[in-house]
Structure formats: C-alpha cells, structure tokens
C-alpha cells in the first residue's frame, strides 16, 4: 500500500484553507465536515498526517469519512489510514482496533495484507524489555505468522519473517535471563529447566550456544557429569568456534572430563538428533 500519493498532496494543499475550520475550536465540527466531499476530507487528513507532526490530528478526518460516507471507496481508504495514523502516534490499541475493523469489513481487499501487517506490527512494536512479561511477544508471533501464512506473496511477508525471527529470539532471551538468575543463586535444577527450553524449543536462536554452556556449568555443579559432557559435545559439534564452547571445554577439563555423549538423558536424545541425524 502507498500511504501518501504525491498527486494528492498538491490537491490537499489547495483544500487546506477550505477545511481549516473543520478541526478548530468553535462551531459544530460534524456539520462543517458535511459541507465537503469525502475526497476533500481525505486529502486534508493526508496533509495533516504529513505535516502536523501529530498523527492523531489526522484521525478525526479519516473517522468523519467513515461516518459521512460509509462503505464508500474513500471510507475504505480512510479506515486503513486510521490504523496507520494511530500506529504512527504509538496508540497501538487503537491501531489494532482500526486494522481489525478493516479486516472484518473488507477481508478480500487488496489492502487486507497491509491491515494484517499493521495489526501484527502493533504488537511487535510493544514488545517490552527482556525483563518484563512476554505476553505481547507471543501475540506478535501469532500475528506475524498469520501475515506470513495468509499473504506469503505480499510485500509484507518478508518483513514479517524478519520480525518473527527477532521476536522468537526475544523469547529465548527471556528464558536465558531467568536461567542465569537461578544459576547465580545456586538453584541449579530450576536453571537447567530454563536452559533446556532454549535448547529444545529455541534452538535456531542466537542463545543456544550459551544455553548449552550454562547446562555444562549447572550439571557439573550437581555432579551430573554425563549430562555435562553431553551438553559440551553438542556445543562443540555445532558451535566449536564460539567463546561459549571455549568456556565449557575449560570447565569440563577442570573436572578431568571431556566433551562426549554419555548416558541416556534428554541431552543424549538431542545429541542423536543434531549430531548423528537420528530422529527416531
């Protein structure tokens, strides 16, 4: 979708004086809008969005088009522009609401992919710092996946894939943060559970090497040498040049051990899969 069209901006400038009183303080705003066509109001909204520095100033124009000219082509355009304007203003809840209304009203429209992308983006751009609740991250992942699966050939699919990977990495980072917290305080079993999640569920993220190294550390602290050695073996096979492998190798050697698959733990199963290629 092209949000701004250069031809519109020229016409919009010409209509600024005509519509200048519509959004001001005094007078009945709705009655003032009724004196103008949907196209004139729309162009004023675009002008405000481009020039006012306050994206929400444009929303009132797009909203009035919906009210005065429902189900028209301009109302359809105005609705997607409401979603965009709210997103520009960082009012993500309203952006989601407008985007969802567009999808509900015009599910087969050519701009449905953009509406779905805006909806996903409104979750993605709200992802908090790693230390906070990750509920929005899950919602972002779900919405981004829908863009990828429902509109794979759209221009938004590639961006959605990149953002999906980043959000996925963000969840792994959360598990790592909690795992480190437990490890530092000697709660080794709780720490192992967090690092295991990263290795099993987020193995394609950037956090897997550290998770394996932390597993070596935690298992050694518990005296579970077979598991520690197996974690080291997986780390060495997949990330031998990583500084995390150097650290894990030093820890194992310090205990007179070496990286190798031993025993029959969940890590042995991972080793068989990722190193030996045995999935059954």
TrEMBL record:
Annotated function: Part of the outer membrane protein assembly complex, which is involved in assembly and insertion of beta-barrel proteins into the outer membrane.
Predominant localisation class: membrane
Protein name, as recorded: Outer membrane protein assembly factor BamD
Domain of life (superkingdom): Bacteria
UniProt record similarity statement: Belongs to the BamD family.
Domain Outer membrane lipoprotein BamD-like: 37-231
BP GO terms, sorted: Gram-negative-bacterium-type cell outer membrane assembly; protein insertion into membrane
Gene symbol of the encoding locus: bamD
Gene source species: Paracoccus lutimaris
Cellular location(s): Cell outer membrane
Keywords of this entry: Cell outer membrane, Lipoprotein, Membrane, Palmitate, Signal
Family annotation (PROSITE patterns): PROKAR_LIPOPROTEIN
A GO-annotated cellular component: cell outer membrane
Recorded topology in the membrane: Lipid-anchor
Pfam annotation, one family: YfiO
N-terminal signal peptide: 1-20
Quaternary assembly: Part of the Bam complex.
SUPFAM superfamilies cross-referenced by the UniProt entry: TPR-like
